[in-house]
Amino acid sequence: MDSVSRLLRMARLDAGLDKRCLLGAGTRMEVPSHGGLEAPFHVLLEGACRLQVGTVLLDLRPGDVVMIPSGAPHRVITDGDSGPVGTAETAGDAFVTTRSEHGGKPVIDLFCGHYTFDAGAGSLLFASLPDPVHVSFGQSAESDEVLRMLSALMRGEARHEGEGTAAILSALCTVLLAMVLRTSRGDTTRTSLWTAAADGRIASAVEGMLNDPGADWTIERLSRTAAMSRATFLRRFTRDTGTTVGAFLTRVRLMTAADLLTTTDVTVATVAGQVGYSSESAFSRTFRAHLGTTPARFRRENTRTPGTTKAG
User: Fold this and answer.
1) Per-residue model confidence as pLDDT tens digits over 273-292
2) Which of 20, 154, 242, 261 could form a disulfide bond with 192, CB atoms 3.0-4.6 angstroms apart?
3) What is the CATH number of the domain that holds 242?
């Protein structure tokens, strides 16, 4: 299984489309904060607008996707000469349609939704991403074609809302996230995503650690595998992933451990060994420092597989 697919599986991801926003000029739409295990996203299909998260102001064009891993409150703004105009909502079976209070011709077609994820691997994954993530698919011919097909399916479901619409839109939103996570840094993205390192040699190192987190991943081993000097490897790894090798490896090991704790009945000590820790106590200290709870308590509170024995 490829790394992005593996990450999405471990995250216990769920996705939903909340709103289709057909907003006129001069509109400001306030989006409240989301829950601790939710990350809102927006995909702009037509028009142009701005999205403000705290002090960050993003200019969006067709094909742009913004995800806010922290769930922070934000606003969507369309240009116009009049004073700020609010929004009005019309409920539907699968999602809400939002329009400007003053009516008028829409200047943007914006889909808004959110991802939910688990308290272990999912929480670690989303916390590791830039906040916000802003990916521009419109600059890549291949990605642009995929997004056009995806948006056409989403709009088709939005127009003909009926049986199965919510499930179909959820699946399409998951596809959208997979596209974001595999988009390389460079011309098509504003931020550094470690899930799609631009340098193929760094990407191979990332893939290796994800595939076998329990291995003895020394800097020397990784730099030799990447055919780079130690200094060059460390510099390029940080450039392409936004973090250090040590911090990255810890994250990958804990994500895998959280997955094992909630999908198997092996002991905590066994999990620790499988993800590269020489002692259960060292593993438990690191797990608690990053996830705020012990491995045993995490297992009790998060196991989802019916019939497993909650060992540890």
Assistant:
1) 999 999 999 999 999 999 99
2) 242
3) 1.10.10.60
